[in-house]
Amino acid sequence: MAKEKMTGAQALLRCLEAEDVEYVFGVPGGAILPVYDALFEATHREGAKLKHVLVRHEQVGAHAAEGYALATGKVGVCFATSGPGATNLVTGIADAYMDSVPLVAITGNVPQTLIGTDAFQEADITGITTPITKHNWLVTDVEDLPRIVKEAFFLARSGRPGPVLVDIPKDVQNAVFEFEYPETVNIPGYMPAPKEPPRLAEAATLIRSATRPIVYLGGGVRTSGSYAEVLAFVELVGAPVVTTVHGKGVFPETHPRCLGMFGMHGSRYANYAVQDSDLIIALGARFDDRVTGKLAAFAPEAKVVHLDVDPAEISKLVTATVPLVGDLKALLPKLHAEVQKTFEARGRPDLAPWLARVDAWREKHPLRYVQEPDGPILPQKAIEVIYERTRGKAVVTTGVGEHQMFAAQWYKSDYPRQFITSGGAGTMGYCLPSAIGAQLGRPGELVIGIDGDGSFQMTLQDLATAVELELPIKIFVLNNLFLGMVRQWQELFYENRFSATPLKDCPDLVKLAEAYGCLGLRARKLEELEPVVEQALAHQGGPVIVDIRVRRQEKVFPMVPAGAPLNDMIGGE
Amino acid sequence: MERIEEKQSYSLHTISLLVQNLPGVLSRIAGLFSRRGYNIVSLTVGPTEREDYSRMTIVVRLSSMTVEQVVRQVQKLVPVVEVRELKPQDLVERELMLVKIKTPEKNHSELRALAETYEASIVDVSPDALIVEATGNAGKLDALEDRLKGYGIQEICRSGRIALERGFKTLAPPNLK
Ligand SMILES: Cc1ncc(C[n+]2csc(CCOP(=O)(O)OP(=O)(O)O)c2C)c(N)n1
Ligand SMILES: [Mg+2]
Prior knowledge:
The structure holds 2 protein chains of 2 kinds.
Chain A: E1 4-7, H1 8-18, E2 23-26, H2 33-44, E3 51-54, H3 58-72, E4 76-80, H4 84-88, H5 90-98, E5 103-109, H6 125-129, E6 135-138, H7 145-157, E7 163-169, H8 170-174, E8 176-179, H9 200-209, E9 213-217, H10 219-224, H11 227-237, E10 241-243, E11 258-261, H12 268-276, E12 279-283, H13 289-292, E13 303-308, E14 322-325, H14 328-346, H15 352-364, H16 379-389, E15 395-398, H17 402-410, E16 419-420, H18 431-441, E17 447-452, H19 453-459, H20 463-468, E18 474-479, H21 484-493, H22 509-516, E19 519-523, H23 526-538, E20 544-549
Parallel strand pairs in A: 2-3, 2-4, 4-5, 5-7, 6-7, 9-10, 9-12, 10-11, 12-13, 13-14, 15-16, 15-17, 17-18, 18-20, 19-20
Antiparallel strand pairs in A: 1-8
Helix pairs in contact in A: 1-2, 1-7, 3-5, 3-18, 9-14, 11-14, 12-15, 16-17, 16-23
Chain B: E1 11-20, H1 25-35, E2 39-47, E3 53-62, H2 67-76, E4 80-86, E5 91-102, H3 108-117, E6 121-126, E7 129-136, H4 138-149, E8 153-158, E9 162-165
Antiparallel strand pairs in B: 1-3, 1-4, 2-3, 5-7, 5-8, 5-9, 6-7
The structure holds thiamine diphosphate and magnesium ion.
Magnesium ion is lined by residues 401, 452-454, 480, 482, 484 of chain A.
């Protein structure tokens, strides 16, 4: 690429174009004005591919970038100005860090002459985001800008993905230099190759010797896109499969071997199977406390084969009997071949008794609910209706709370990148923003939100963004007039003292939808549910908000109380 | 099967890092230790044979966490080029200590003799105070400190440990070697 004279702001946009960025989500402000000025030209130019989405709050920008990234597998990008603009990104960046979402956040900062003087809208955003980014940079010289942006995208998407932040002082945005985008990055010491070769034979021996193996799939499978490899491996090994919430859809959830999600709100049969296993094959997963329950009592008889790209996840919480560090896409086929060789030499293990035991649990303790024909709508029922009417094919985003766990239990996901949710951070307000990002990333597809009334009210101002973009998203608010998940804990562990959880004065969501220019619908009774869902799905054009009034105190079961062993569940017998 | 649980006892480990001299590198590393609950006993940082790299020696006190886990977390920081635990039997470690002692002049000769035993020197003398400088491993300096207590220690300044691995192995990735 030939060198070209331009400003830092223009160069930044050229870098984004070189990285094939389609959408940037942001809000302008004083310290990022030069970038926005350059953006005017870059997005209006003929044949421009780069588009800017004006969100109404920077947190939404970050979550929308996450939704885009998770729906497409590409890097999400967001912009914010200095000070409050940058700090508004923090929740979204933290969320992306917990869930390993590739995100590049770009912030303007005050001119370097003012840095450190408590200038207007100055914030040490690199300092603030150091614990929640893979890396961040304060650009002090425009000559460094192209290299830094190149490294930013590389770090965000490589290895275990995650958020990065590039903070650009205003004078650097204005500085003129000879731009050239580097073709390669050189980060010494990043992702060093493992010092020893993978212990594949040992892993294969463990798999051959196990009589009660289970395959545990996490978000790493989604990151690596190794769906076909995982399916083939599971079919070879013949073990039952459990997933985390981010593992939903990386293996078809309706596959006979799939027991769905395990953990705090996993099914009884999934939790029993994990707890009783003698070998856990963990692929792209990190043994989070929401899945293990009480760690000391977790799967006491299980050996562990742990395959992950991040060596720091190995033996962090559960000691790996055989660790395998590397990209699943490259490593799993090698393990597959080794297991196949072992099976050919020594025969396949007989898993029939184990599979029969698992099936018996599944038959005895299925996920279930009882919808009274003239009782209030149950949230589980609402999700089942939505599942059926979307033929299980929608891209689903959620808020955080009971509705999220009901959605994880009842919206079976057969397709990867179909279920988009805030897992590690559990960030309320995630549903609408991530639906916006997902719909932009997958324009022809049906994108729906399953939200809670509390979560919805945390970011609803961005209905304006969805309307402006005419996004055909459908947000189903499972409205229980409660901060339901907290109320559930108060019911179970705090003797029904509903401290600060009733949300009685919920605004009229139908009118609110209309005020924003959306279609607003409501279902109060069971007989209204299906027609309203149909109507929402049939609606052409902009967003639809559906206020589904659900039974106020329906609880998510089964539940492993915090700190209890995984097989010590309440409810859902 | 092992599950990582709280251990009551703790252990000390010496970790050596080669880091890129990037802005904020010290706070990135110190921040990682504090947010993950690894207790830093001492931390030293200084230039190396290459001007764009620094070497850090961190002594860390661990109870529930394994040192391998710490090393892997530290390795993930982008400016960290290489990191390794140096096992006690494999390392040469040194620490520098300055001790200011307030004591009448009549004790000075006795102190001089004591310092000599520990290969320490007296680097500043005024009528009622002197400064002892000593280098060595932590055990030796602890012993000297103990002996000096009786004379009235006013201030102690210890540098924290620096360490290198014995033998030919170096802490640098192949492309830097
Ligand atoms: C930003 C944020 N604040 C607080 C919480 C704690 N919290 C977890 S679930 C929940 C209630 C969610 O209410 P709602 O969105 O209505 O969902 P429901 O549980 O009622 O289905 C709260 C307050 C959180 N997860 N995120
Ligand atoms: Mg609610």
